[in-house]
Amino acid sequence: MTKIGNTAYNAGKNVVQIFFEDNPKVIQRKHFTCWTGIELNELSNHKEKVKEIVSKIQSERTNHLILKKFPSAGTTMSHIEQYLRKLISEGIIPDIVLLDYIDCVVPTRHFTDEYAGEGDVMRQFETLIAELDVAGWTATQGNRSSIGAALVEGNMIGGSIKKGQIGHFVFSIAKTLQQKEDGRATLAILKSRFSKDGLIFEDIIFNNGTLVIDTTQTSNVSFLEFGKHEDAKKSERVIEALEKRQSFLKNKVQ
Description:
By secondary structure, the chain is of the alpha/beta class.
């Protein structure tokens, strides 16, 4: 979400980045990393360089990048709307609103089902950004089956599936244990109301330390092609495991 916001700001857009669980300083440092290319854990060792680059960027911009933390309990979409309308009344017109993440917003009505209100919150967010005529991005977590999955599909959305049904453009990020080690991920376009969906960008650069996300070094494949790739990989792993076992047994007999 920070990478989306930073890219939009660099393109001259007014960005409002709303978050619930992170500390504002943590989000700020992530933007510093985006601008400087210095890894998050190295920023403190390059304070003067960071200050110089950030000051230069801010002096060249007339648009706004606003970081706003809301309480992680009790915040409704009405609270967010009031805040955005206050900004507008002060002359700051958002071009894009980032909500990180939608599961932290509570419904304004009472629902007996734990997840029934999530669809209502998502619909309120859709209505709000339409009324304000801004772009809106939000995130949601996956369910248990998404952990360590090679591909996160629509049925792996945590909580209510209505969040995905209401969204106009939905993409997922999957990371196997090996990809986490290598700073890579698999991005899949699950849904798009204005372009082609069903595309997978396998093994893209997704570095949490430098906030570099790069899809240009990999070609996209369809879900069917990806499935064939995964089946081939599984077969290779099975063959490799059998060969290792045979080698072990052979050495044991000798």
